Amino acid sequence: xxxxMVVGNWKMHGSAEQxxxxxxxxxxxxAGQESTAVGVCPPYPYLPLxxxxxxxxxxxxxxxxxxxxxxxxxxxxxxxxxxxxxGVDFAIVGHSERRELYGETNDIVAEKFMASQAAxxxxxxxxxETLSQxxxxxxxxxxxxxxxxxxxxxxxxxxxxxxxAYEPVWAIGTGKTATPEQAQEVHRLLRGYIAGLSEDIAxxxxxxxxxxxxxxxxxxxxxxxxxxxxxxGGASLQAEQFIAICANTEN
Length: 251
Ligand code: PGA
What we know:
binds 2-phosphoglycolic acid; globular; alpha/beta; eight-stranded parallel barrel; single chain
């Protein structure tokens, strides 16, 4: 039985003051919801503060990104061993905003995935198609190519220490959520592809859905057979919404 997981991606939002308030409310609101794994991904500078605030709770702390390099002359980058030093538990790699705005190719994302694992940090690999790719019937080809690029470099066994997130780009921050059926179809495809390589890895792999997840749609999404929780952007900045989304995994 796969454990459900909900991860908040705060993106480039918040201040020390807002984060303290948000986390205090979230941790209080999550009391008694132990069956779901919950994580939050603050902007880099707040990682130590968030680690400290989460120390007495079960909330895990993740990074939104990681360098593919271990160290060196890469101004402005943050290496996986540095995140590891801070006690970071996991890292998002290949978010569509990184792919689109910062030119991260499938190969670069695969390197980030491996750099993260080499430092003992579990990656959450994001895949997803744009609206025009969906309209052109390319959804399957796009998400499989994104997944295959990582499997080609890291091997399928690497997914024993990782999670996957299906995030249709057209649903991110737009208020347009994939229907539970649309999401399940892609989740089943992804799990099926991995099962073709390793039944065991596929059966245990957590595959999260992301893209305008909120309290009102989380229940219908999270009860789909291959959806193991959510990667939540906007709604993770509101304590009540985030707590309610986490509560939707209790079924
Ligand atoms: P959203 O973002 O929930 O605001 O759509 C999701 C994400 O980008 O991970």
